[in-house]
Structures are given as C-alpha cells and as structure tokens.
Amino acid sequence: MKKKEEETSNRPDNTAFTQQRLPAWQPMLSAGIVIPGFVVIGLAFIGVGVALFVTSQSIQVLERDYTAGDESSDHNCSLCVNEASCLCAVHFTLVQQFEGPVFFYYGLSNYFQNHRKYGVSRDDYQLSGDTSYFTDPQDYCVPYQYDSKNRPIVPCGSVANSIFNDTFKLYQIVGGQRKQVPFDGKGISWWTDYNLKYRNPSLVDGSLAKAFNGTVKPVNWPRAVYELDTSDASNNGFLNQDFLVWMRRAALPDFRKLYRRITEGEYEKGLPVGNYSLEINYNYPVRGFGGRKKVFFSNVTWMGGKNQFLGIAYLVIGSLCIFMSLVMLIVYAKYRFPDEDS
Amino acid sequence: MCLQTVIYLSIYLSIYLSIYLSIYLSIYLSIYLSIYLSIYLSIYLSIYLSIYPYPHTPLCRPAKISKCSYLMRCSAHPCLDRIDSGLSIDNDLLPPSLLPPPLHSPALPSPPLPPPLRREMGFVERRWRDVRVGDFVKVVSNEVIPADILLLHTSDPNGVCLIETANLDGETNLKQRKVVPGFAAAPTSPFKPAAFKSTVVCEKPNNDLNHFSGYIEKPDKKKLGFGIDSLLLRGCTIRNTEESSGIVVYAGHETKSMLNNGGARYKRSRLERQMNIDVLFCVVLLFSMCLIGAIGHALWLETFSSIPPYLVADSDGHFIPSTLAGFYMFFTMIILLQVLIPISLYVSIELVKMGQVYFITQDVDLYDEETDTRVQCRALNITEDLGQVQYVFSDKTGTLTENKMVFRRCTIMGTEYSHSENAIRLAVLGEADASEDEVTLFQQQQQPSLFAGDPGESIKRCHSTQVDVSGSQRSKVTTGSQAQSALAFSSPLETEVVPDRKLLQVVLGAEHQGEESGLDRSLYLDFFVALAICNTVVVSTATAQRQRVKGRRNSCAPRTFLGRLQGVLKKIASPQSLFRIVKDKQEPLSDPFAADEECPDLSDTPTIYSTAVEGGGPKTRARVTTAPRPAQRQGAEPGSASLVDDDVCYESQSPDEAALVHAARAYGFTLLERTPDRVTVRLPGRGVALLTYEVLDILTFDSTRKRMSVLVRHPHTHEIILYTKGADSAVMELLEEPADETVSQREFRKGLSSSTQRHLDMYARDGLRTLCFAKRVVGQKAYEEWSLLRQQAIAAIENRAELLMDTAALLETNLTLIGATGIEDRLQDNVPETIEALRAAGMQVWVLTGDKPETAVNIAYSCKLLDQRDLVFTLSTDNKAVCKSRLEGTLQEVRRYGSDTAFRGYAEGLRGPGAGSLGEDPTIGLVIDGRTLGLALEEEDLRSKFVELCRHCRSVLCCRVTPLQKSTVVKLVREKLRVMTLAIGDGANDVNMIQAADVGIGISGQEGMQAVMASDFAISRFKHLRKLLLVHGHWCYSRLSNMVIYFFYKNLAYVALLFWYQFFCGFSGTTMIDYWLMIFFNLLFTSAPPIMHGVVDQDVSAATLLSTPELYKMGQHSEGYRRSAFWIGMVDAFYQSLVCFFIPYLTYRGSDIDIFAFGNPMNTVSLFTIILHLAIEINAWTVVHWVIMLGSVLAYFAVTLAYSAICVSCNPPSDPYWIMQQQMADPMFYLVCLITVVVALLPKYTVQVVRGTLRPSTLLYAKQLERLLPRPQMEEQIRIDASEAPPTPRFRLSDLSSPSPPDSPLPPPPTTPPPHPTPHPPPATSRIVSP
Fold first, then answer.
1. Would you call B1208 and A196 a contact, using CB atoms and an 8 Å cutoff?
2. Would the pLDDT of B1285 be above 90?
3. Would you call A308 an interface residue with chain B, using a CB distance cutoff of 8 Å?
4. Interface of A with B in 155-174 (CB under 8 A)
5. Residue B1002, marked binder
6. Residue A24 to residue B1098, Cβ atoms within 8 A
7. Least Cα separation, residue B191 to chain A (angstroms)
8. Mean pLDDT to the nearest integer, B294-304
9. Using an 8 Å Cβ cutoff, are B256 and B233 in contact?
10. Do the Cβ atoms of B1253 and A30 come within 8 Å?
11. Distance CA B550, CA B548 (A)
C-alpha cells in the first residue's frame, strides 16, 4: 500500500486552471477606448434626462401648509392655535384644470417616523390578527403595552398610538354653494399590507368588536380600532386604510402620506377650474416639536410624483460625460500610446 | 437632587446597558459572528485540509500514531515490549531532574502492572501511552521508537543499532547509535533488566536533538558517560537491528522530538502589519462616527420644547435626559457601524492565502521531476512577502550548487594529480545529465560528419547509440520512483571516479614494493586509508539494504547499476567522449587493479576501443530491459573482487565524505565495514588484503574546529594513528614543527606544505572544495593520558561540548601533512540566470557561505553574482583597528565612487519601478570573511558602517561564516535597513538564517530536511526561486494588497450609507435596510468577488513577469499597498456612499416612500457600485471572474426577492415584505440605480483612464506588451529564454516608451551603457583594497 502511494507521482496537474493560464479578457483603460463609451453614455443620459424632465414638468402639484399658529390668507387654521380640536378650512383657486386622477396627500415635517425606538414600538403579531397577542402584547410596545389598569392595548405601541387624526373634506365653491368633492379611500394602502400582512381577528359572533373584547384602545385614540370608520363597516380594525397607511413608516422626517384619491363622479377627469375649500378637522398637534402640516394635491405619472431632481441629474451627468469625452479626446490626441499608431 | 441624578444614572445605565448589550450583542453579534465565523471557518478549514496534505511537523502525523496504537492492541505485531521489574530501577534512585513530577511523585505511582507479569520478569506488550520514565523498553526492527530511550543493549554483536531519523529531520540515511560505552554486556546474551542496578543521571528535558549527555553510575560508583549517540529518539525507526533495549529517560511530552514540536511558528507579513495600522484608523473612524452620532442625538433631543409623539418613553413613562440618551446612542452606533472593523477581512485574507498557496503548490514549473517534489508552502500566511523581497541571502553549498560532491583532484606529498580523465568524464556526464534531449539532438545533427572517415561503422554506431539513449530514457522512466528517492551519492556522477594514471602507478608501486618502500610511499597509502576511514560513513551491504521495509531504498544496488548503465550509454552517445568511454565503462565496473595493466594501453588502441564498444555497449543495452542483475554480474566480470565491491553501499550525512570514500575505492582502498570499534578496509591487490583498524575514538566534526579525526590502532604495527581531515586553515596551523629535525627535513617539510598550499589555492580558484589530510602517530602513553581526560569530558554534564572540543584539540596537534583533495560541487541549473533575474528585479543578492573566500569568489563569478567589470572590495583581517580603518576607507572610496554612479542608481531604484538602470553600470561587490565579519559585527559603530557599506554594494559575499553569523547578518540588515529579507539554504547550518529572515526558504536537497523544517517555503531547486518570487510573489502581493484595500473600501462604503441616514432619523440608530439583508450583503453578495480577486486575478501574465523582472520592484517599494492607497480608497468610499445615499434621497425626498422601500434602492446601488468598483480593478477576466461577479449579482436579486416574498412579518421591527418586488415593478428604481452607479464610479473610472493614458505605470506597459505579443508566442519565447539563452528580455519596456511625457518615470533605454562620468573607470578585474 505504502509503496503504491509512493509510486504515484507528486506532479501537479498541468491544466489551464491550476497553472493559472485560463483564457482571459484584459480590458485596457485608455482614452482611445473609453471616448466612444463616454459619448454613448452621455447621449443616452441626456435622452433619459429630457424624458424625465418633461414628464416631471407635466405633473401638477398643489401644496398648502395649514399648520396652526401662523397667519395666512389661505386658511384660518390659526384658530386652532390652542391645539384643541376644531374645524378650519383652506381655500384655494384653480386657474386651470387639475388633471385626474388627483391624489390627495397630507404631509408632516420634522416628524421622525423613522426613529428607531418608535419604529420598534408595535406588535406585528397582533396586527396579523393573532389574538393570543391581544391579551399579552409584545414588550416592544412599552410604554403603550398596557394601560394604567393593566389592560392590554390593541393595537399596542407608539406607532399606532400616534396615528394622524386630522380629517379632510373638500368642497368646490360653485356659485357660492359648497359642493362636496367625493374622496375615494379604497386601495390607498399597499396591496400586500391590506391583503396579506395585516389581518383582522376572526369575528366573534359576527362582530368585530367582540373580537377585541378584553382590550382597550390606544391612549390617544378617541375610538377603538374597530370603530375607526363609522361610515364603512368593512373599513375597520387593522384593515382600515388610514391605519395601514400610517403604519407604513415614512423614510424621512419630511413626508407625505396618501389620504384619498379623487376618482369618482364628475371629478374623475380631474378638478375643474374654480374655487375650492378644504375643510379640516384639526386634531393633530405638531407645534410642540416644531412640525408642520401640509396638504398636497397631485396627479401622478409613471414616474410617480413631481420630482425635478432626477431629470436634471440625468441631464447634468449626460452633459458631463460628453464633456469628459472631449477632454479625453484632447488627452488621447496628445498622449496616446505609441503602439496605437500602428 | 444630586442623589436623584445618581440613582437615575445608575438605574438607567444598568438597564440600558444590560438591555442593549444583551439584546443587541447577543442577537446581532451572535448571529453575525456565528454565521460569519461558521461559514468562513468551515470553508477555510475544508480548503485548508483539502489542499494542505503535508503535515506541519513530521511527528504528529495522525495516521502514524493511530496505526501504532492499533498495532499494539493486536498481539500478532508487538509494537512495544516493556518490563517493569520493580527491582532494577527504583524511580527514587533517579535524580529529580529526570522525573516528570506528576508521574513519579509518591502519590501518583506509575500504573502498577498486574502481579503475575511482575513475577514473570518478562517483557509485556504495552501501549505507548503507558510508557513511563524508568521503564525498560525493547524495540524490534522496523518499529517506531516510543520514547527517548537510553540504549543499553542491542542484538548486534558490536553493540550498535541503526535508526532512521526521517520522521524527525527527514534525513533518510541510517544513523548509528551505540550502547552506552563500557556498559555493554555480552551481546549474545539477552538483556536482563533485573540485573540493572545502576543510577542513570542525565540532563533535564530539552529540545536539542543533537545534544544529550549524562552518565550511568554503577553500584561500584564507577561513572559511565554517554551522549546523543546512545539515545534512541522517539519517532525514529529502528532499522537493521533485530532488537534493542534500553531505559526510558524521557517520555511523552518531555521527549526531545515533542519539545521540538513547539507550536506553529507565526510570522506576520509586512502587508498585514501595515494593514493592522489601517485597521486602527478604521477604529478611530468608527469612534468618531459614533461620537458624531451620540452628540447629534443629544443635540437633536434638545431641540424639542415638548415631547413629540414619535419619542418613546420608558415603561414608567419617563424620558431619559438627552445627554444620557446620547451616551447610550454611542454604543448603539458602535453596534450599528461595527462592520467598519473588518473582522471579515481577516477571515477573507486567510481564505485568499489558502487559495494562493494552492496555486503556488500547483505550479508545474516549481515541480522537480528528479525528486518528485513540489514547492511546499509551510507558512501559510506570508505568501505576499514573497513579492516584496529586497535582500536575498543565499547559502552556497547545496543552494547555488547541487551539493553533489565529485572528487576532482588531489595532491599527495606535494605532488598534484590532476585527474584529467575524470574531469573529462564529468564534463561529458554533466552535459548528458543536463539535457538528455539535447544529446539526442546533437547526435542526429553532428555525429555523421564526425565519423565521415568511416561511414559504415559510424552509421551503425550512430543508430545503435540513438537506440541506447532512448532505451536508457525508457529505463529511467520505468524506474522513476526508485530514481527519485535514491541517495544522491549513488548516482554515477559521484560514485565513479576514474583514477589518475600517474597516481595509480604510484599507488600500485607502493603496493608492490610493500614494506621496503620508504616514508614517501607509505604516506601515499596513508592518504588513501585516511580517505577511506577518516569519516563517519556507514557501510551497508545491498542485502542489508533489502532488509529494510521502506521499499524505496532497497534499490541501492540496482539503481547504481542502472545509473551506471545510463552513464555509460550516455557517454557512448556523446561523440566527444568516445575515447574515454572504454575506460569509463571498464573502470567503474571492475577492480582497478585487475585492469591496471591494460589501462594505459586502452585509450591508445583503437582496436580494443572499437571491440569494447561493439561488444560492451549493445550487450549491456540489451540487458537493460531484460535482466539487470545478471547483466551486472557479467558486466562486472573482469575483476573478481568486484563482486564484493558492488554489494557495498555507503551512506553518509555529508556528501563530501561519500565522495572521498568513493574516490578511495576507485584506487582499490575499499571501505568494507564500519562499527564503533573497528573499521575494515580492503587494500588494492590481487588477493583480498583486509586491514581492520581498531577505532579508539572519533573526534567528530564541529564548526569551530572545522575538522574531524579518527584515532585508530594499526592492526599490524599496533601504532596508534590519528587521521585528521579538515579545512586547510584548520589543519595547516597544526602541522608539526619538531625541534630535532634536520635542515633537509625542514626544507622538505616546508616545501611540502608550501606546495600543498599552492595546490590548495589553485583548487580554490577553480571553485573546488578543499580538504586537507594529516596524520599523527600517538604514543601509547600519551594516548592513555589523553584517554583519561576524554573519559572525563564524556562523563561531564556541564560544558560537555566544550570539554569534548578541548580534548579533541589537545590531540590534534603536531600533525604530519599527507595531502589534500579538491572536490567539485557543481552549480545547479540556471543559477546564473536566476541570480541575474533576481537582481534585475531589484533584489540584492548576498551569499553567505562557510567555504573559503577563493572558492566562494569563484563560484560567485561563475554564477554571475560578481561580474568581471565589478569593483570588488575584499575585507579580511584579524585586527579590530585594521578592520575599522579598512571599513572606513572602503566606505569612503565607495561613496566617492558611488556618488557618481552607484548611489545615483540606488536612489533611482528607490524612486520608482524601472527607474534605475542598475543592471548596466559596473557596480560594487564586497567580499568579507568570517573573522572580519565577526569584528565588524562587534561594535555598534562598526555595524552601522558595515551596513552602510553593504547598502552601496550590489553583491556581498561572506565567506567562512558560522551559522550564527549568518543569522546575525540577516538580522542586522533586516533591522538596520528595514528591508524585507529572504534567506535560502539547504542545510542545518542555514536554519538560523532561515528563521531570522522575513521569508525563509529551504531547499530540500542532499543535506537533510532541517532547513526545510525551519523554512516557510521549501523548493527543490534554486532556479525555482525565480518563478516563486517574480511570478507568485508578485501576484500574491498585488492581489492581496488590492484585495485588502478593496475590503476597507467596501466596508466603509456600505457602513457610511447607514451613517448618512442617521442625519435623517435623529441619530436614533435606525437602518433603512433589513438586518438580514445587511448581513447577507457582507456575507454572500460581496464576499466572493474580493476573495476571487485575491486568488486568481493576474495583473500581468506569468510570462511577462518572468521576462521583465523590473515589474517586481512594484512590490519592493510597497506600491501595491500604501497608506495613500488606503486613504484614497477611504475617500472614494465616502464619496461613493454619499452618492449612493443622496441620489436616492434627493429622488425620493418629500414623497410617501417608506423606510425599507427607501433603503432598497440604496442597497442595490451599493451592491452594483461595490461590484463594479472591483470590476474596474480586475485586470484579466477569466471564466472564474465572470461566474463569481455575475453570480454575486444574481445571488443578490435571488436572495432579496426570495426574502421579500417569504418574510411577511418575520423580522419584526423591519418590514421588508414585498419591497423588492414592488420596486422592481417601478421604472424609477432602475433609473435611480443607473445614474447612481454611474455617478459613483465615474471619478474612479476617469482617474483610472486618465492615469493610464497620461502616466502609465510599468505594469501598464507590460500589459501593452502582452497585447502586442500573442500569448502562446510569448510563453514560448520565455521558455527559450529561461532554458538556454542568457535571459535577455527581447522586449524591453523602454522600447515602448518612445514618446513618453517628460515626467514619465520610465528608464532611459538601458541597452546602451551610459557614458561613465566617474574619474574611476571600471576596473577590468577585481580590486583588493589595502589598508
């Protein structure tokens, strides 16, 4: 046995891999080769940039800040400066047709929904309808886990507790008469959130409310989670659209969230020219942390909302590439490799 | 108030820290580290085990141990017999030093054997683990020795025992161990442990394999000393000795071999040392980022006048003070950003090195067919140091030369015998050896014309010879496995010596005239006797060889025969040597004295010559294939006594000795037997005249005395004769100067020594190794007196070595010079080319040798270490003051000279690759001998002067240096000049040097494995150094340095992304990317490409690297890994992370995007940026590259998509569900990715392009060169370059650089020697500086 081992040669395999002789492509970075590349990239980018810019320009946006505290001709929300619940209105006039479908957003500034501890403060098992977590919410929810009488809070945690609770109604002023513009609140949340991720607990005796027996509403909420939408019984519990939208935390401290879409009736094609009044049920306090509240009307295209940046960026980078190719050309003409002459 | 704060603080600290640390550290880090480490380490280990089959140390081969314990269990094959007589050796009798405390303390007696065995008083079989100090152990032939055993008895009548130490030091020759002198009982009687009533005293366990001393105190208080030659070392194997018994003196972990087994040596490469500093920078960076986070968080909290709804209170509804929150945030940030500390980098580096080692060991160019060895990477973590070597310290013998000693010439009694016939034979043989193909080629082209005078015969012979060559090749192939392991001195090159005709006559005359011849003749006899017996060569007969289990070595006789046949056939094949063949053919196979009458005639008589060829050649050839053994018998027929001859096989630790013994044998003085007491020599003559000398003592060789002696008693005259063999300096000083000699005697003596010295000088000039032989007749009385001293010295425990040396020196005086020999040590293949390439690569090559200056200088010239045009300074002095003044004088001269040329070249060499045209200027060489070196190394002042001087020298040659000096020189250069040093050597005397250098390379040559054991890399030929350094070294360095910088960049680029987000989330430590995806990002998506880059990327192909050694300078000047490169990488990472963060940020700002939908494009963009960043760096795209790069990207999408689809709410705080799918349906995602990647990489790409065009590096030129020359053609050309032609690269870098910009660092065309501006024209020959 031993002898046999010794007779086998120790010679390494002479293959391209072991001898590191695999055929290889060696890109050479020199001006001569990259100039066409730069030109092509530059032209393509300029093309994309123009398309983006034009698309972005076509998007109409109407933005109004209605934060209480500062005087404005547009709105009378300074009435609500004492932060008590009150009604106020924002007035605006459209001088040209606002193309539909119009999306209506509310926006918050300096609001850190992305704060780490805030983001953690929720119980996803509760929200997926697991009733065992109704009686015993997860510790992440502290301090909104149990109320002062040690009853479990559902939905627990800071995120749910701090839900945005201003409500809006839009009226068109037609001949001095207020005509309500219908809002469409369906399908404003993520499809997967509504259909897969968030689940209501199974009904007890055909009643959603009974499923929440033994739990209390979050501290700041006026009503329980199964009573969020008084007008539409199906829009309650964890599947309430506003709740779902709120629970998807914004990435940045200045954000907007979709509130409603205007897709119905005569406003399907958009908001016609005229005067409008947005009635606000002013509840949500922001002055304490220097936040601001806004509303947005916007229409959307394939590239989402209005954003000039990307188009401009493409244009700039495209131009830069063209410029670079010119520089390269000069460099190449001056210091090219000798061998490239031949 | 104060108390409240304190309570507050303490409560919060404890709660927070415990929560934070427990949750975060446990979850995050444990997941992170466990995944990382488990995956990385498992890969690492699996690769490690699969590609590293060589055992670290030969002793702990697991296979061996387990096998043995198995064997011990079965009674059929006893592995160990042992007796615990209980009577004989009382453990308490042993001195405490001998006893391992836990084993022999009274509380813990060695496990008692069952009483019946004790009564039987016989040996019983036991496992190794049961062997204890003080046990008597019997080991039979071919068993591995279980512990360090003091040999007390052997079955051999002479009380010797042969062991093979291959397990210990890799040396395969047998070594002789003998029973403790004076202790030996009658060898035939079985050993009776019960009768052992002595006390053994020996030294404490130590790791010196070559030294051991102690004594046995008999009951009558008589002390018997013993040394290493009575100790059987654990791990060795008993050979050729039926059984040996002894007492265990060290067992288990105290054995010398185990103590030698001290943990794995760990060298850190220079790159890693540099890298560690950069890791510290990363730590500083991490801390500053965390600090920013902490302060930012505290300040952010301060901005609120009331509590906002998104701030979460604690369970009791309170909020902690903002400063405290900031303090906690610091730790949160550390956890968040800790990827910046590249733990994965260390694991990846190990993986990369595994891969690099794999490719190095796979290189077929570094494989040596002859010995069937590949290059071995024994140190796994310093591969990249191979690419940064600046100083090469080489041993001469066995490293530059083959260490195949060939007897060349001798001088006896002042008469020189040139052995010209032998020289011619060697020339032919060497040529044939060098390239068999060449011989064939040569014949085909030239032979017919040579034999034009006799066409018929010539054609016939030509035909036959060609067949012969192929036949011999075939036979070589079939016996390949035998050839590879055959002893070096059994090849025909060394074993055959053609006697000098004149000398032969003189010797025969001496023989014939016998006793009546005068002093003159007997001295001739003495010379050959000394040649034959003054050594430690072990004689083993072919039959004895066969006894050994190791099949590979039983081929001694056939191998010799085949080898001879090959030699003969080759000689026949070579037309130049036709005249000599006959003599050759007859000579070695026959007794020289049987052939001596014909010998002179033969070479002159064409008839005999032709018959010899006709009859001998083909006949022998015919037998090669059929039956080698009978052929040998018949071929050897002419000399009747030669049958005995051929069965003798010599094994020697030193090739010189073997060469001398073979030389003596060629003159008929055949060493037949050697035992500790006797040595038998057969004298030339018709009858079998055997002389059996009684060996009284052997004064072994040591490097201080530089000589060895044997003290023998002549069988007939009963004279006690001391034969001494040693270096001429060591022997010449000791020659007798009797007071009572006559004038003529004195004249004669002086003439003798001066002419011998003259011859010695001549030998040295020819590059031969010289040895002087001298004898001394010792009076009986003087011997007895000396013997007493000797006994004391042997028994001494302390200073035994010195005492032995002193006693030896005591006897070695008043010697009578007999003669001297010159032994040739042939240069290895391609040594000059290799040295030239190494120097072209900017390395300074030093040769440190124990040889004499003349020989060393000669070798230095022949291997192109010194050039004829070089200015060579020689320093040799005994006096310190002289040494100092010479050193200063030389330094001044060198400076004066160097200020014009050499130093400029040096400075240029520093400035950049390809800057210096060092190779073209005549430069300075320094030759310094050991004594002067010793003086120069004594004082700090002199040391720095010496180093300064050496820095100016292109090559330094240190002669007559001791092993210690070798390492001192290496250390000195390494520390003073702060350069990367490489030491290469093959012998035990190089071990110090190899260990002292940054990179130690061992050559697995003739002198055992000690050097290899101590080395980091082991190669088999010196020429392999060229590819190992220039190609693998360069690759490993550039690959690894790129990889390390890339890794730093990669970590920062990703971590900074998280950091920028902190500015938008109130520094709260939020991540916008799911934790798992973050872990996967580092672990799966971006880990393989850098590792792949580090293992297989090639900046330049091997062929180009070999042909343009200048490319190596990149590593020497640490250009691959510089602090600037690190910082550029870091800045680039910052820039790229800014781009990767802010372009998506600006795009999505103010929209209704949620956190993870915001993080997803960033993650994707980072991946593309990081991967494409590497793509820009990759030099050559092979299949492997494509697979791994594309695979990484695909893995990212596959894993992310799968994760987003599966993880509905599995990772609670984060919410990655359906994010990727959502994003990939959005055109904006692609647009964002596209522009971000382009903007992130644009600067790097542009810089790369512009630099490549404006200031192309040497490497880039090399790449250009490769483009111009198609690959296969290039390789072919290199092969030609490397094999025969002097390696002048046909394409020079400068050829490409004609219109180079003014600030280009390219060298001026080096083809034309620059005009010499110095006042000192380069001298034509070397110059000696006088004080």
1. yes
2. no
3. no
4. 158, 161-162
5. no
6. yes
7. 34
8. 93
9. yes
10. yes
11. 6
**Residue B1017: closest CA among B381, B488, B390, B404:** B381
Q: pLDDT band for position B858 (50/70/90)?
A: confident
Q: How would DSSP label each residue in B798-855? A: TTHHHHHHHHHHHHS-SBEEEEEEEEEEEEPTTHHHHHHHHHHTT-EEEEE-SS-HHH
Decide if A142 and B315 are in contact by the 8 Å CB cutoff: yes
Spacing of C-alpha A302 from chain mean position: 15
Q: By the CB < 8 Å criterion, does A329 face chain B?
A: no
Give B287's contacts (C-beta < 8 A, 6+ positions apart): none
Cut 0.80: pTM above it: no
B368 is catalytic: no
Enumerate the residues of chain A whose CB falls inside 8 A of the CB of residue B1232.
310
Q: Which of B135, B156, B395, B1281 is catalytic?
A: B395
Q: Please report the residues numbered 50 through 109 in chain A whose beta carbons come closer than 8 angstroms to any beta carbon of chain B.
A: 52, 105, 107
CA B27 to chain centre: 47
Mean pLDDT taken over chain B: 72
Residue among B1069, B1180, B1301 minimizing CB distance to A116: B1069
Q: State the SS3 of chain A.
A: CHHHHHHCCCCCCCCCCCCCCCCCECCCCCHHHHHHHHHHHHHHHHHHHHHHHHHHHHCCEEEEECCCCCCCCCECHHHHHHCCCEEEEEEEEECCCEECCEEEEEEEECCCCCCHHHHHCCCHHHHCCCCHHHHCCCHHHCCCCECCCCCEECCCCHHHHCCCCCEEEEEEEECCEEEEECCECCCCCCHHHHHHHCCCCCCECCEHHHHCCCCECCCCCCCCHHHCCCCCCCCCHHHCHHHHHHHCCECCCCEEEEEEEECCHHHCCEECCEEEEEEEEECCCCHHHCCEEEEEEEECECCECCCHHHHHHHHHHHHHHHHHHHHHHHHHHHHCCHHHCC
Mean pLDDT of B842-860: 83
- Judge whether residue B1277 has pLDDT over 50: no
Please state the rounded mean pLDDT for residues B578-605: 36
Residues in chain A with pLDDT < 50? 1-7, 338-342
Q: Any binding-site annotation on B90? A: no
CB B409 within 8 A of CB B821: yes
Q: Which residues, listed in sequence order, are joined to residue B775 by a DSSP beta bridge? A: B723, B816
- Yes or no, beta carbons of A120 and B1213 under 8 Å apart: yes
Residue B1057 confidence (pLDDT) above 70? yes
- Tens digits of per-residue pLDDT, B48-105? 554 443 333 333 222 222 222 222 222 222 333 333 333 233 333 333 333 333 333 3
pLDDT (0 to 100) of residue B612: 33
pLDDT band at B921 (very low <50, low <70, confident <90, very high): low
pLDDT value at B854 more than 80: no
Q: Please, are residues B40 and B351 in contact by the beta-carbon 8 Å criterion?
A: yes
Pull the structure tokens for residue B1054. Answer: 């990703």
Q: Is the pLDDT of residue B19 over 80?
A: no
Residue B184 confidence (pLDDT): 62
Residues of A in contact with B481 (CB under 8 A): 6-7
Q: Looking at residues B719-724, what average pLDDT do you find? A: 89
Of residues B906 and B819, more confidence is placed in B819
Q: What's the rounded mean pLDDT across residues B407-436? A: 72
The better pLDDT of the pair A49, B111 is held by A49
Inter-chain CB proximity A338 and B1298 less than 8 Å: yes
pLDDT at B1142 exceeding the cut of 90: yes
